[in-house]
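C1q domain-containing protein
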Amino acid sequence: MAHLVLNIFVLSLTVALFINVTAVSVELKTNVTDRLQELHEIQEDLKIKSKQFETMMESEVGKLKEKVEFLETKIQEQDNLLKNCQVATSDAIGSLRNVEENNLKKTVLDPKTCLEARTADPSLESGMYFIDPDGQGRGDDPIYVYCNMTTGSTSILHDSEDSIAVSHCFEPGCYTREIKYNATLRQMTMLSELSNVCHQSIQVDCYDAAFEFNGVPYAWWNDRNGDPRYFWSGVNNNSSDRYHTCQCGLDGSCKEKSLSCNCDSDLAIELSDVGILLEKDLLPVTKLNFGRTIAPTSINRHTLGRFECNGKVVLNGMPTSCQDLWRIGYILSGIYSIKGSSNKVETVYCDFTKLPGDEELQTWIGYADVKSEPVQFTVARKSSFSTLNTAISFDQETLNTGNALNTSTGVFAAPRNGTYFFAFSSFAESQYSTFSVDLQLNDVTIANCVTSYALFYCNVPITLKLSRGDRVQVSLQQGSTNNAIFTGWLLAEDIFQ
Ligand SMILES: *[C@@H]1O[C@H](CO)[C@@H](O)[C@H](O)[C@H]1NC(C)=O
Ligand SMILES: *[C@@H]1O[C@H](CO)[C@@H](O)[C@H](O)[C@H]1NC(C)=O
Ligand SMILES: *[C@@H]1O[C@H](CO)[C@@H](O)[C@H](O)[C@H]1NC(C)=O
Ligand SMILES: *[C@@H]1O[C@H](CO)[C@@H](O)[C@H](O)[C@H]1NC(C)=O
Ligand SMILES: *[C@@H]1O[C@H](CO)[C@@H](O)[C@H](O)[C@H]1NC(C)=O
Ligand SMILES: *[C@@H]1O[C@H](CO)[C@@H](O)[C@H](O)[C@H]1NC(C)=O
Ligand SMILES: *[C@@H]1O[C@H](CO)[C@@H](O)[C@H](O)[C@H]1NC(C)=O
């Protein structure tokens, strides 16, 4: 029975187990089928997706191909553009270089004088150059001149450099030749302003054609102002308007010793006067005038050299005018300090749009208060002082800039020429005694003060023009004081001594 029970138990256990296992396998089976189904579905899905991807990729690749083609054409275009650009740029650089070169040439070509050009570029060769004495970009146009780069000299060409025959006529100056320069008078004036020396040579060959005869002048030249001049060499160092001479007159070597020109001679022989006009403030020669050539045998020929200037104007010391400032190269209008005609610094306005000779170039503004060193003092005496005929000394020093006052001696010594102001103030120590002081300049009394009653102040204010080393002091004459104050300062200094 027990066995059966056991069997039944085992059987039921087995059945149970079987049922269980079957259930599991069924479950498993369903799971696997499910899975398979799922996988299949995924596979299908993937297939669709990959198909989609494929078509998408195909279209993308197509697009990319298009893009690449587009880019290739673009690159080609850029390449062409670049090539064109390179050509254009090299052209542009070329023309830029030309512009630059022209500008360079311009800066070299537009100096004020040939000397300036040579200074800027010592390698320049002698030849024709453009210069602009009155300044680039202002005044008259640049002028075309001959530059001797060895000497740095500037020559202005004109139409009368050859030997020219004077026509036959009798009256003084009946023959006139106007000299035509290849520059305006203004430019030539500015050139001479900037130059140290200017000259013009002149040769006159004559035969029975006197410059001057029996005191009558038949020949002269006109200066740049149009005024007649009768000297044919050197400088205008005679106050007479009719100053007449030639080089032989200056040398004492004229054919006729009593005359001052060879061509003043009435002798029927071939003569000539050669001279160099050196008066730069009168040059250039603007006209040549001759007369007394009426005789058919009379010969008069003139040869006028170029107007030539050299060197750089030298200022003697400090600039004294806007003109001086212009000469040394100032071109910006403004307020400047100059050495005044007094011995003070003056302030002027320079309008450099105007040129030397123009009144508006300089406007006077006023004196500039300039002191080489300040001089100011205030000193006092609080202790009794009673030594008569002696400078009152001081025991308190409030201010003593420049140490011009020696407090221990009471003597002021002017350190510089100039105008000084002084004020001395004091009163008597004892109430009823007379009190008197003298203010002395180099021991000579020039002001004084007397009080007879202590309540009155003794005041000595004074302004004095002093020379360097002059001594000023206040000397006690009567009574005594224990209360004095002395002050003074340099009002205006003679700055250019
Ligand atoms: C069958 O799947 C279900 C749910 O997906 C899970 O709980 C069960 O354990 C699975 N059976 C087998 C035998 O893997
Ligand atoms: C005169 O100057 C002009 C420029 O101002 C120039 O072109 C011309 O060649 C010059 N003439 C002579 C003879 O030098
Ligand atoms: C330059 O001037 C000097 C001195 O006057 C002269 O000797 C020389 O021949 C001139 N040179 C030229 C190139 O004009
Ligand atoms: C004129 O100038 C010369 C030299 O330049 C000089 O020797 C002469 O003394 C001067 N004459 C007068 C009158 O000043
Ligand atoms: C100045 O010139 C005049 C005219 O030529 C002459 O008579 C006079 O002697 C000259 N004076 C001097 C100081 O040279
Ligand atoms: C003042 O004068 C006295 C006498 O001449 C001199 O000894 C002293 O050095 C002077 N003092 C000054 C500051 O110059
Ligand atoms: C100062 O002034 C005097 C006379 O006024 C003068 O002789 C002297 O040359 C001027 N200059 C100097 C530095 O003293």
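thats it. The mean pLDDT is 86. The first helix runs from residue 2 to 109. bye
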